[in-house]
Design a protein that fits this description.
- The radius of gyration is 18 Å and the shape is globular.
- It contains 5 helices and no strands.
- It is an all-alpha fold and about 120 residues long.
């Protein structure tokens, strides 16, 4: 399908919800999404199957929410919810693995972590 017969959401000229795309949160979401696309070797999501594009968007959203939660945590905000935070971490991990974005930890770093006493 050519770009003239797709919806504005598909073309990227409109988001589903009418939000100010210039807001700090919208910009951060977009930065994370573009970073994920780059890690998937698909700048702008081009060439990715639709399901992988959707998973990358969900992951960018979850990562944005995690950053908000971490800001609350370090500032001592009473509204910080550690159960919701843990659920977001689990979801981010699951989506990362689904996209093939496994965390990379150096073998030396693993050995050093094993020697630490908590």
């Amino acid at each position: 399908m050519d770009k003239y017969h797709r919806s504005a959401v598909t073309n990227g000229s409109l988001w589903i919800e009418k939000i100010d795309q210039r807001s700090a949160l919208a910009r951060r979401y977009r930065d994370l999404l573009n970073g994920l696309y780059d890690e998937l070797h698909a700048p702008g999501g081009d060439g990715l199957p639709l399901i992988e594009q959707a998973a990358a968007k969900r992951l960018a959203g979850v990562l944005t929410r995690l950053e908000i939660a971490e800001g609350k945590m370090v500032s001592g905000d009473a509204t910080f919810d550690d159960i919701a935070y843990t659920a977001l971490i689990k979801l981010a991990t699951k989506l990362s693995y689904r996209l093939g974005l496994e965390p990379r930890v150096d073998e030396l770093e693993l050995r050093q972590m094993g020697r630490r006493r908590w």
